[in-house]
């Protein structure tokens, strides 16, 4: 059991480098830079195998998220979370180049894989976007397995994908089975199931860092794609209203945003994630304590925490995510 009074926990970001990364995670969000110009992802809060968030503040500094859950799952996750793993993963992405076209399986398919894993439902919040940037989300109406397979084999997958030019503040919901790709010139905050299961079905006919084409997973992609859901459009919250604005409420997680006013979070026997893609915010807790979150910073409120107050600074955005109550 954890005897420590609960408090907002900060973690070391886990930095990931790929061929499509850039430098904006450091220049825009203050993340540590590799110096190679290919920093693609900052995993803010994660408990997935060897990828572990490590607490940096308070008396629990040095503990991994998995260790906290093993010691006291109710303290960390809450009574409704029966799994022995943190169910969500929060990350920032710098899409300096277009990402591969991908699709993720659902939980049922993930459980049958050689190395079983969760499925992957995810959502994106657009932190920054160049005017020409595109998001590819869902198949065009009427595209079936045969049409998708033909487009892949012809090296023309883009022609069957729905796409749009996103705006800063857009939210895009990508349930498992949705074919998708993030275009160049985007910085994204992503909340997803804690899974690293990705099937790559098209990579724009380019070569990887080793000079060879990156591996594709065409048959698996065709097997898990949802051919009924069709195009995905952006969700645009009303940030003119104070308090939390619910962007997504699905069977895996809830995602909210706030730009003004004061709103409560926690005190409900559930863990909560807060991150600040723009500006800053103050978290008031335990009567007279507070924590300042600057742009790009994230915290986890363990389930044992009492109600907190979240106060965004002027021209700021706070994102709030929590696992579904009964996933």
TrEMBL record:
Enzyme Commission number? 5.3.1.8
UniProt-annotated catalytic positions: 200
Leading EC class: isomerase
* Binding-site list for Zn(2+): 104, 122, 180
Its required cofactor(s), as named, are: Zn(2+)
Where would I find the Phosphomannose isomerase type I catalytic domain in this sequence? 10-112
Give the record's keywords alphabetically: Isomerase, Metal-binding, Zinc
Q: Which InterPro entries match?
A: Carb_Metab_Reg_Kinase/Isom (IPR051804), Man6P_isomerase_Firm_short (IPR014628), PMI_typeI_cat (IPR046457), RmlC-like_jellyroll (IPR014710), RmlC_Cupin_sf (IPR011051)
Q: How is the cofactor bound?
A: Binds 1 zinc ion per subunit.
What the entry lists under Gene3D superfamilies is as follows: Jelly Rolls
Which GO terms fall under biological process for this protein? carbohydrate metabolic process
Q: Which GO terms describe its molecular function?
A: mannose-6-phosphate isomerase activity; zinc ion binding
**UniProt name for this protein:** Putative mannose-6-phosphate isomerase GmuF
Give the originating organism: Stieleria bergensis
Q: What is the lineage of its organism?
A: Bacteria, Pseudomonadati, Planctomycetota, Planctomycetia, Pirellulales
Question: What gene name is given for the protein in this entry?
Answer: gmuF
């Amino acid at each position: 059991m954890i005897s420590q009074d609960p408090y907002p926990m900060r973690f070391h970001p886990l930095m990931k480098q790929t061929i499509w990364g850039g430098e904006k995670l450091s220049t825009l969000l203050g993340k540590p830079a590799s110096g190679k110009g290919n920093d693609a992802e900052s995993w803010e809060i994660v408990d997935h195998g060897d990828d572990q968030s490590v607490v940096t503040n308070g008396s629990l500094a040095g503990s991994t998220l998995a260790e906290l859950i093993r010691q006291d799952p109710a303290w960390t996750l809450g009574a409704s979370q029966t799994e022995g793993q943190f169910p969500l993963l929060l990350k920032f992405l710098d899409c300096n180049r277009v990402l591969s076209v991908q699709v993720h399986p659902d939980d049922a398919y993930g459980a049958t894989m050689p190395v079983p894993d969760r499925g992957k439902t995810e959502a994106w919040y657009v932190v920054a976007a160049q005017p020409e940037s595109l998001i590819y989300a869902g198949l065009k109406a009427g595209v079936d397995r045969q049409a998708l397979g033909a487009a892949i084999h012809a090296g023309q997958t883009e022609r069957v994908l729905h796409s749009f030019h996103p705006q800063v503040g857009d939210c895009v919901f990508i349930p498992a089975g949705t074919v998708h790709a993030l275009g160049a010139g985007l910085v994204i905050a992503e909340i997803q199931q804690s899974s690293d299961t990705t099937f790559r079905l098209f990579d724009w006919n380019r070569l990887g860092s080793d000079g060879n084409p990156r591996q594709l997973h065409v048959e698996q992609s065709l097997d898990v794609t949802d051919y009924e859901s069709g195009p995905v459009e952006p969700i645009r919250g009303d940030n003119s209203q104070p308090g939390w604005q619910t962007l997504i409420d699905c069977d895996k997680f809830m995602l909210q945003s706030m730009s003004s006013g004061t709103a409560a979070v926690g005190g409900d026997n559930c863990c909560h994630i807060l991150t600040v893609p723009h500006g800053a915010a103050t978290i008031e807790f335990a009567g007279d304590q507070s924590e300042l979150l600057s742009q790009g910073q994230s915290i986890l409120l363990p389930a044992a925490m009492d109600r907190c107050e979240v106060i965004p600074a002027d021209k700021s955005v706070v994102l709030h995510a929590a696992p579904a109550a009964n996933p």
